[in-house]
Specification:
Layout (H helix, E strand, L loop, with lengths): L4 E9 L2 E6 L2 E7 L1 H11 L4 E5 L11 H8 L6 E4 L5 H10 L3 E4 L1 H5 L2 H10 L4 E10 L2 E6 L4 E6 H11 L3 E6 L11 H10 L4 E4 L5 H10 L4 E4 L1 H4 L5 H10 L7
Helix pairs in contact: 2-3, 6-7
C-alpha cells in the first residue's frame, strides 16, 4: 500500500469556503486562497476544490478563483463543479488544476468519463460518488445530494472504473459534516471492489476517525473540511498521530 494521503476540501459558494451538515445549513469557513496556503504549510498531500452550486446554478466552476489558488500552492489540485465537457476540463487545467472531478454530469452522461480519460489520461479524472443509505441500500445521489438515483454505489463505482476513471472520491451523505466518523461499511465495500484509489469523505471529527478508516478499509486517502477549516485539527498533528498508529503517511 502506498502512503496514505490527507486531503483538505474547499467547498466553495459565491467565492467563499463554506461547510454544513449533510450538505445543508452552510456557514462561512473563510477565504479559500488563505486556507489553501495554510494547508500547504501544514503538509497537506493534495487539495480539492468543489464549487458546490455550479451544477445547480447551471454554470461553470470559478476559473478565476481556481487560478488564484493554483498560483499559491505546490501540491496536486483537484477541481470540480459544473463540468460538462472536455472543453470545461481544458479550461480548468489551463487555470492550474491538476485533476478534475465530476459527479452529477458523470451520472447524466457516463461517456464523459471516457472522453476525459481519452483526452487527458485517467490520472486526470476523479469521479465523485455521493452516496446515501436509502432503504438499507447505499444509493448514488446527485445535485449536491438533493436528488436520489437508481444507481447502487458499488455498481456505479465499478462502472466508472471501467469507463476510465483514475480515482473515486466517495462521500457518505449520512456522515457528511456530522463529525461522527467516516462510513466504514460503504468505504470498505467500494475500496475492495475497485482497483483504483478511493478517497474516503464525510464524517471526520477526530484523529481516530482517520486511523479507523485507514485500518478498516482499503482507501488510499481521507478527505475532510470543517475540522481543518475551523482549526480543530492541524494536519501536522494528524500525521504525527497516524505515524504513531503505524499508518504510513507522507511527513
Amino acid at each position: 500500500m502506498l502512503k496514505r494521503r490527507i486531503i483538505p476540501c474547499l467547498d466553495i459558494k459565491e467565492g467563499r469556503t463554506v461547510k454544513g451538515v449533510n450538505f445543508k445549513n452552510l456557514r462561512d469557513a473563510g477565504d479559500p486562497v488563505e486556507l489553501a496556503k495554510l494547508y500547504v504549510k501544514q503538509g497537506a498531500d493534495e487539495l480539492v476544490f468543489l464549487d458546490i452550486t455550479a451544477t445547480i446554478e447551471n454554470r461553470k466552476a470559478l476559473a478565476g478563483l481556481v487560478e488564484r489558488i493554483a498560483g499559491e500552492i505546490n501540491i496536486p489540485f483537484t477541481v470540480g463543479g459544473g463540468i460538462e465537457s472536455v472543453n470545461d476540463v481544458s479550461a480548468l487545467l489551463k487555470a492550474g488544476a491538476d485533476k478534475v472531478t465530476i459527479n452529477s454530469s458523470a451520472v447524466r452522461k457516463p461517456e464523459l468519463i471516457s472522453e476525459i480519460a481519452s483526452q487527458f489520461g485517467s490520472q486526470c479524472i476523479v469521479v465523485a460518488i455521493d452516496t446515501k443509505l436509502i432503504n438499507d441500500e447505499w444509493m448514488v445521489v446527485v445535485n449536491g445530494g438533493r436528488t436520489p438515483t437508481t444507481l447502487y454505489a458499488v455498481s456505479w463505482a465499478l462502472n466508472v472504473e471501467d469507463l476510465g476513471a483514475g480515482e473515486i472520491l466517495l462521500t457518505s451523505m449520512n456522515n457528511d459534516g456530522t463529525k461522527s466518523g467516516f462510513s466504514i461499511d460503504i468505504t470498505g465495500e467500494v475500496s475492495r471492489s475497485v482497483n483504483i484509489p478511493v478517497i474516503a469523505s464525510g464524517g471526520a471529527g477526530l484523529m481516530k476517525h482517520f486511523s479507523e478508516v485507514f485500518f478498516n478499509t482499503g482507501c488510499s486517502a481521507a478527505l475532510a473540511a470543517s475540522i481543518f477549516h475551523f482549526r480543530e485539527i492541524d494536519i501536522r498533528d494528524l500525521k504525527r498521530y497516524l505515524l504513531n498508529e503505524n499508518i504510513s503517511v507522507r511527513c
